[in-house]
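Reopening this one. Same input as before:
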Amino acid sequence: MNVNRTSMALKLAGAAALLAVLMITAILLLSEPKAPVAASIPKIDLAEPPMQQMCNTDSKIDLAEAITLQMCKRPLASETPDNGHVFVRVPAGTYSLGEKEHRRNPRHAVKLKAFEIATTETTNAQFARFVKATGYVTDAEKNGEAPSFHEGMMDWEWTPTKGAYWRFPFGPERPGIEDKMDHPVTQISATDAEAYCRWAGVRLPMLDEWEAAARAGSDTLYPWGDEKMPKGKPMANFWQGKTHAKNTMEDGFLYTAPVGSFPPNKWGLYDVVGNVFEYCTSDPMPAWVHSKNACVGRGGSWWCSSGTCSFFNLVDIGQMNRKASFPNQGFRVARDAKK
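Same output, byte for byte:
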C-alpha cells in the first residue's frame, strides 16, 4: 500500500514539474515582443498559387502552424520565393549553337554548367506580386511614358505614350492587363527584370544558356523545324501580315498571348520564339555591342512581321537599351542548378 502511495506521489510530482516547465515556456513565448516564426511564415490562402502563398509575410499564424510549416522546409519569402515559376533542368554539356557565317551569332560550341530555366515567360500576375511585396516602381513609371503601338501603324513606328507602363502597356486610354494576368509582363526594362530576379532569388539566362535551352537539342531555325508555318499553321505568336497595317491573326492573337498557348519545345519550354522578346545577359557582352547602356534579347515577339523584325527564331540576337521599355519586351528567369 505504501509502495503504491509512493509511486502515485512520484507520478504527481513529475506531472507538476512538467506542467511548470510548460507554463514557464508559454510565459516566455507570450512575453516575446515579436514572434520571428509567425512573422516570417505566411498563412495559406487556397485562392493563391502555392508558391505565392509563401510570399505573403504580413499575416500572423499560431505557433503550432508555424512549427508545422517549418517542418515542411518550404522556402520563406525572405529567402527564395519561387513565385509560381516552374523550372526545367538543362544538363551540363557542350552545346553547338549559332549558325554558320551568321554576323552576330556564328556557329560555335560552348561548354555549359547545369542550370534551370523557367518553362514560361514571367507573367503579369507574377510581376504584380513582386510589386505588391516591394512597392517597386518601373523605369516606364519613372519616365512617365513609354513607346506604344497599335494595329494600323507604319512599320517601325512607335509612339511615346504618356502613362504607358506594365499595367497599361498601350497607355491608360486603352485596355490594361486586368483580364490578361496569364500573359507575359511587358513594358519592362532590363533593369526592372533584374530587380524582379533579385527579389525572386533567380536571374536572367545567359545568351548561350537561353539558346541551348530553346533549341532543346535541335539544329533548326525554329523549335519545330525550319519552316515558319508548317502546313500554314502558326506554331507561335507573331504578326501575321506583311506590314503592321493589318494582323490577320491566324494564330488567334492581336498582341500578346497567354503563356503556354502554343506547343512547347522538346524540353518543355513554351514561347521561346514569339510572344515577347526575352532579356538575356552576357559577360562579357558580344563584341558587336558597343554601348554600355545596351542589353541583349532573344526569340522575337508578337510584333515580328515578315517585312520587319527577322528575330523570330533561335539564331538572331537583338540589342536594346537596358532602360527602355516596350510592349513587346519581357523576360524569362533562370537559376543555377541545385545540387
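So the earlier flakiness isn't reproducible anymore. For the record, The first helix runs from residue 2 to 31.
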